[in-house]
Backbone:
């Protein structure tokens, strides 16, 4: 039986596309809105090849409330929203703070404004472990202190969490689940969808796979003098399909009135801290492909180490990261090879 209609903003993006696949496979009907500022329409073909279903798609900007109003009229009965639409490059946000505050916050405010009147029962919001800044203690739990944001991008996530909490405290007739992602990596095992960054990648895995295939000469490892066992930074790399599955659970929880509080917050990570050098090793061992790399100076603003305590999500959502890091690296590599086959890069 077909389940409810879910609106996925930013649904042709990296995490959004993987989530649309999981939603459709769980029986939900999906309508995507995306302005294609950081994704490509061909992602819909990938989703259709995996699921056999082409999701409804509106090309539009969530900062325009009239576009959203029209969407709710054209696609009646939306019961849940997953809000991925945002600008997400930390460095760019330092250069263009107004763009970041406007895009990320206007999008959220418009959705919150319309949800009540449109009868939407819940919203899932993409937050980030950046809200913890440089933690005093690892792993971090949802109760760990929120540190002052080090970028306008990080600040939009903190402010967004506060806006949602305030709106619901003021009596809004819907629920929210804030998901704090650690470092999403990898691609769908079919290699039909994956991460497709514009230009030179800022993030580790796309830079690594582009180096492995020869697009980039060598990977720079930003620092080996941190207070970590091998001196390189530590993160919690979470498989994107595992991450996507948590969104389906979160939507289901709100739509079936299982939330234990009007606003719930969950860390989505594996619980394992992995260093940059360990990650390169894992990739090389998993794929048999060497990654030329060199140690360079630290990158300004980098956190030394952060990883999740995912116990709360494990116990309350019944969700657990399952993919091994080696399988995740193989999926990232298969996706990079697929892009080459298709002549994308
Ligand atoms: P992404 O850039 O691949 O996807 C975001 C999508 O939103 C893109 O398709 C883009 O075109 C669209 N978009 C942006 N502004 C829009 C607007 N105003 N109207 C309509 N569409 C718009 O990014 P992603 O990695 O999939 O991230 C999804 C969400 O998760 C973002 O909110 C991001 O901040 C958050 N997040 C990502 C990471 C990460 O490392 N990838 C970590 C923590 C949190
Ligand atoms: N790194 C390198 N070389 C590179 C790129 C990255 O050594 O070419 C290192 C970084 O120094 C860091 C680690 O790899 O130690 C991971 O870096 P990423 O840029 O991939 O990820 P970040 O942890 O810096 O930040 C990412 C997203 C943020 C998000 C955060 C938490 O970019 O938007 O994860 O979810 F908020």
Residues:
């Amino acid at each position: 039986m077909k389940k409810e209609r879910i609106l996925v903003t930013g649904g042709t993006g990296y995490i959004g596309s993987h989530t649309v696949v999981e939603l459709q496979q769980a029986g939900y009907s999906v309508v995507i809105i995306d302005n294609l500022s950081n994704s490509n329409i061909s992602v819909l073909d990938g989703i259709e090849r995996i699921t056999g279903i082409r999701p409804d798609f509106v090309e539009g900007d969530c900062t325009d409330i009239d576009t959203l109003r029209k969407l709710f009229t054209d696609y009646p009965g939306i019961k849940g929203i997953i809000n991925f639409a945002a600008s997400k490059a930390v460095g760019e946000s330092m250069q263009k703070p107004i763009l970041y505050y406007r895009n990320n916050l206007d999008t959220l405010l418009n959705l919150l404004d319309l949800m009540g009147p449109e009868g939407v029962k819940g919203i899932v919001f993409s937050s980030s472990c950046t809200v913890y800044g440089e933690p005093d203690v690892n792993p971090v739990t949802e109760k760990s202190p929120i540190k002052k944001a080090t970028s306008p991008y990080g600040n939009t996530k903190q402010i967004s969490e506060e806006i949602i909490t305030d709106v619901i405290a003021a009596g809004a007739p819907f629920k929210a689940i804030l998901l704090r992602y650690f470092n999403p990596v990898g691609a769908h095992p079919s290699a039909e969808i994956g991460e497709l960054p514009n230009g030179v990648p800022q993030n580790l895995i796309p830079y690594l796979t582009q180096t492995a295939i020869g697009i980039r000469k060598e990977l720079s490892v930003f620092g080996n003098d941190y207070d970590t066992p091998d001196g390189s930074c530590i993160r919690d790399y979470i498989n994107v399909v595992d991450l996507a599955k948590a969104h389906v659970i979160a939507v289901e929880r709100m739509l079936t009135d299982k939330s234990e509080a009007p606003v719930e917050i969950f860390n989505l990570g594996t619980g394992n801290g992995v260093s940059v050098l360990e990650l390169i090793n894992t990739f090389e061992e998993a794929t048999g492909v060497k990654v030329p790399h060199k140690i360079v100076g630290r990158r300004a603003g980098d956190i030394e180490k952060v990883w999740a305590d995912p116990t709360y999500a494990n116990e309350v959502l019944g969700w657990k990261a399952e993919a091994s890091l080696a399988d995740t690296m193989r999926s990232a590599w298969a996706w990079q090879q697929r892009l080459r086959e298709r002549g994308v890069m």
The two ends are 40 Å apart (CA to CA).
